[in-house]
Amino acid sequence: MEKITFDYSKAAGFISDEEVTYMSKLVEDAKKQLLDRNGAGNDFLGWLDLPVDYDKEEFTRIKKAAEKIQGDSEVLIVIGIGGSYLGARAAIEFLRHGFYNNVSKEIRKTPEIYYCGNSISGTYLQGLIDVVGDRDFSVNIISKSGTTTEPAIAFRIFKEMLEKKYGKAEAAKRIYATTDKAKGALKNLATEEGYETFVVPDDVGGRFSVLTAVGLLPIAVSGADIDKLMEGAAEGRKLALEQKFEENDALKYAALRNILLRKGKSVEILANYEPSLHYVSEWWKQLYGESEGKDQKGLFPASVDLTTDLHSMGQFIQDGSRIMFETVMNVEKSRCEVTIQKEDVDLDGLNYLAGKTMDFVNKSAMNGTILAHTDGNVPNFMVKIPEQNEFYLGELFYFFEFACGVSGYLLGINPFNQPGVESYKKNMFALLGKPGYEDAREALLNRLK
Ligand SMILES: O=P(O)(O)OC[C@H]1O[C@H](O)[C@H](O)[C@@H](O)[C@@H]1O
Questions:
Q1: Which of 22, 69, 143, 359 could be joined to 334 by an S-S link, Cβ 3.0–4.6 Å?
Q2: What is the model's pLDDT at position 439?
Q3: Which atom of ligand 1 sits closest to the CA of residue 145?
């Protein structure tokens, strides 16, 4: 069977066999530390076994809730930020129609899905309220801590809207809360109001939670097959856990990116040639950025959508500061074939492409770009995705998560915490006058004068 594979053959000129041999030992050690659960942050390793060891009763409830939402709602509002947002969106955009919310209901068959609570923009939220209009809708509020400001504000607004429209009791039946099993403001609210709740396990951090109810409920509502997603992840787990370095693509990816980091390539650009992978990159950026960017270390995870960004960022990648390498996610088999037709008069000069598919052109652009960037001293890696379906996406999620854990241990940091994100929150709370933050307030206001 085909699988997600990692190919570094095009970067051979930048990396010696000795370096790979040396690094292979280090990644095997890091892998052991991960699996022995004796490294930093080892109380957040629940994601390691999730694909084979998850709450089956809850999984069934997720499917039931998804069916109910599909039956009684034209729109689902998904409220969450960071790890409580990006995985679901990445999956739905990767798996479902490229214009999911815009195609006719006959094609889509499932509710429109919109996201909020991922910014504090009132303009965005009002726009979304206008989109919902007077249509039937449900809300999935997702927050592991249950206290994050952005989703909490958005939820307050949509909760009020639901209650006005349906009354408190019926509104409660349209609210699904995914949060901690016992603590946090959202859990308390859900218990008080009688919302159906789903659990983010204690030992699974937000950015590793896509295969819990956090990702699974919205993904199931979109009509994607969550059984297949879990099967793919289980296959990814098997490959990552059981294969030796030579056959282990996740380990090779972790090793090779760290070889380049140690040579001064401090930026990794994740590139795609399919717009529907944009949010996979966003999910990946949180995964790697929050996991590795600490103790003054780490690769800066960036991303580009190609060929779009070849007409903007392409200049920098080809010719600017030589600080980066590129990892291309290559969907090997395109979902749709669009063939370019011959025209009698070749006014646009495109007849040389007549009979060719757009995917052929896209892949030629990709291959040409890989060689051009390599010539410009940007080493290129490739992650091959056989096709865009649930199975391979599950495998891809696990591939990146496992490589991230290994890579973090290789860096000598705790890949499973995120102490740095608290700094802006403290300042924001002080400026907002949140009780308990009075001391810092005046000093901050002075600095802003
Ligand atoms: O799920 P929540 O607790 O609301 O957290 C949502 C996100 O925001 C936090 O500030 C963290 O930086 C992220 O790691 C997390 O995924």
A1: 359
A2: 87
A3: 3
Calpha distance 14→377 (Å, rounded): 9
DSSP label at residue 348: T
Give residue 440's identity as a one-letter amino acid code: A
What's the rounded Cα separation, in Å, for the pair 206 and 184?
15
Considering only CA atoms, which residue is closest to atom 14 of ligand 1? 206
Phi, psi values for residue 329, rounded to 5°: -90, 115
Q: CB neighbours (10 Å) of residue 292? A: 24
* Type of residue at 45: L
CA distance 87 to 446: 39
What torsion do the CA atoms of 114, 281, 5, 380 make, to the nearest 10 degrees? 160
Q: What is the mean pLDDT of each run of 10 residues along the chain (449 residues)?
A: 96 97 98 98 98 97 98 98 98 98 97 98 98 98 96 98 98 98 96 98 98 98 98 98 97 98 98 98 98 97 98 98 98 97 98 98 98 98 98 98 98 96 92 92 92
Ligand 1 lined by 81 (C-beta under 6 Å): yes
Torsion, CA 253, CA 256, CA 261, CA 264, rounded to 10: -140
Distance CA 415, CA 287 (A): 9
Q: What pLDDT score does 293 carry?
A: 98
Distance in Å, CA 80 to ligand 1 centroid: 8
- Alpha-carbon distance of 193 to 184, in angstroms, equals 14
pTM over 0.80: yes
In this structure, what token pair is assigned to residue 86?
A: 């990006």
